[in-house]
Structures are given as structure tokens and as C-alpha cells.
Amino acid sequence: MDSTSITVIKPGQLIDGLGGPPISGAAVVLQENLIHWIGSSEEIETNQEIKNLVDSAGQYGVLDLPQCTLLPGLIDCHSHTNMPGDGRTGEEVNADTDDVRLLRAARNTTLALHSGVTTLCDCGSWNHTAFSLKEGIALGLVPGPRFLVTGPPLTTTGGHLWYMGGEADGIDGVRKQVRYLIKQGADLIKITASGGSTLTSDPYRPSYDVDELKAIVFEAHNRARPVAAHCRSTVSINNALDAGVDMIFHCFFAQPDGSYRYDQGTAERLAESGVWVNPTHALGISRRIELQAKKELGPLNKIDADMLDRIVNGHGDRIEAYSTMKEMGVRLIGGSDCGWGSYPFGDFQAELISMSDFGLSPMEAILTGTWNAAQAIGMQDSLGTIETNKEADFLLVEGNPLEDMECLRRVKAVVLGGRLVGPKQG
Q1: In the chain, how many domains are there?
Q2: Which of 157, 241, 365, 411 has the most CB atoms around its CB within 10 Å?
Q3: Under 8 Å CB-to-CB from 234, ≥6 apart: which residues?
Q4: Does residue 116 sit in the same domain as residue 199?
């Protein structure tokens, strides 16, 4: 497949990302990097326009995979490409050099692409590393997906992820930092609206006040950049809603004393606002599996033991909360938080599959990582569905993921901008 040629794709069935039932016997015709035509396989032989197009090309490629399902390329709205996903903390990775972090990020984006992620958002990286990687991918130096970056997240002095280089305080300070990030090439803006796992922060309390958050959102929206807020406390969720952010990551209903308490009033605000919510559910599952395996080898230290207790004890509460919010109409998007904790790159599918815990059907789960995600990052006009004149970003998987979500992991082909780019062979 070549982006300058005509390509015909013939899958066993097509999931177009619009939410309707799968289409059997479909064919998709690509011209250069765009989707030119969608119809039945038989129609290719009789449709004069398509016959003329194919004849004029002289040569054309055919990707005939009747055992496969064709669906839109996956969009991961939340990752950290500098991070290894091997259990190391941010403080530990802070000891690396930017050179090492950049090399790791290049490897991680390639892993994501080969696994079927055709659009990846890096929502927190050190200094200039993500901007450098974005340039490297654009120049063809590194194989990677469409790559959107925030650069260092905005955080208060000593706040969550402060070591990445995004500390900014006060209205004037945050305004200047947003403008600086956009100058560097930020595609979206990430705020740590509460603390997190960073040792000098408090995950159960808000960091920025509402006026600071509003200033950040104003500056970002004024330059057509969406805003994502890391929220691990109920107060921070409400502050982010007050400020008008576009996405809320984690959306964890924690009280200042660290206890988890689902808040119906906040959930109603989430549903009414239409904000996009990223559960990062698989991240907790992967961390629980890693810590339980570690515990079998010997006693855990206090930090790991406390974390395992929180994850295990809170698992059911989180599922119940998200199940309720799903029924209320809260809009969910897929974001793996890959690289963080014990979640390595190359399996964004784990986050989509985990959505079944909240009562999402396989189709609804797929939409969180395709059409919903495209809307959340403001790229719905070109990505997220298989429609004419959209970018030819596809994933072909063996089997039917609507019957067995594990099929999403059986990747047979990845197409980015009309080019066959994965999976990696050998």
C-alpha cells in the first residue's frame, strides 16, 4: 500500500464507528491518504466511477482479509510516552536524562502504532521531549501515530508532575505558561487540577483555584486548544467543571481525608455539562496485578501495601460509580494513561475491554476509543469514523470484536493515512 496509489480494502465486516450494526461484504476504496468510497464488494465491479478511478490508476493495491473486521484506527487520549510502564514512579524516572526519556518515548510511540493506535495524545512529558518526538515523527525519523502533545502539564509549585517542568502559579503565571506551551507546539493543554502520585502533592485536594483554572481554559480555548484536567478529588472535579474544561482524567470521587465517596450531585453536573470523562480503569487493574504478583514473592513495603489495599478496596466502588454515570449519560473516552504505573505501551485495548465493567457493550467500548475520542480532541472532522473524505486510518483485527472483545488484540493490519504501517513483522 502506498499513499499515492489507489487501494481497495475488503474486510469480512466493517465497523464504521457511527454506532450502527457491522456491515458484511463491504469494500473501502482509498485514494492517497483519504477514504474515497465505501460500498459493497460487488459494486466495485459495476460502479463506473470506481472502475474509472481504478483504470486511471493503472496499478492498485488490494487488501483482502475476509476473516477480519475493519474499524477506525484507535485514538488513545491519555498517555505518558517518557514513562516505562514497569512500575517505576515519576520520581524514579526523573533521575533519567531527557535523552533517555526521548529514546524511550520513541520506542513507546512505535509500540502504540503497531498495536493499532493511529492517534496518540501525550498528556505529560518532561521539558521539550514530546515536542522533539512530534517533530521526529513528522520528519519520518521515527515510526509513530498521529501524535498530539501537551508538553509539561500545568501544575502548582511542588504539585503533581512538577518535575516535568510545568510549574506555574497565579493567574498571570498560568496565562504565561499556556501561551508558552502553545508557542512550543502544544496541541492540547493538560492541567493537574489536584495532586496525584507525586510525593510532594496531595491527591485528595485541589491544586489550582477556579480563577486560575478559568484563566488556563480561556487562554487554551482562545487558541482552539482543548483542555484536559487530572482530577483525583471531588472538589477538583467541580472546580474543573466550573472552569469549562473539555476532558476530565481519572474523575476520582475522593474526600480531603482520602476516603472515596461517590457524589451524585457532581455526577449530575458531569452528565449535564457533556464533558468527556476518561476513567483510566485498566491502569488500576494492571497495578493491582503487578502488586499482587509482587506480594506472592514476599512482604510488600508499606507504600506498596497501602496502595494495594486502596486499589482492592476501591475497585468495586469505582465500578459502581462509573456504571451509574454511564446510565446517566456521562460521556466516556478511552485513555490508557500508558507508561504510568505498571501499564506498558502496546495494549490500549485493555482500557477499552475494561469498559465492560461499567456496563458498556462492545460497540460502546469501541466508540470510546474511536468516535468519542475524536470528538474530545476536536478532530471529529477527519478522524474517528470510516466515512468518505476522512483520513484513511484503520485497524484490521482477526474475528469479530463485537462477539469477543479480545479480538481487538488480534491485529492483522494497521493503516495510517493510507499506508500499511503495522503490525510489526517478526
Answers
A1: 2
A2: 365
A3: 253, 254, 255, 261, 263, 266
A4: yes
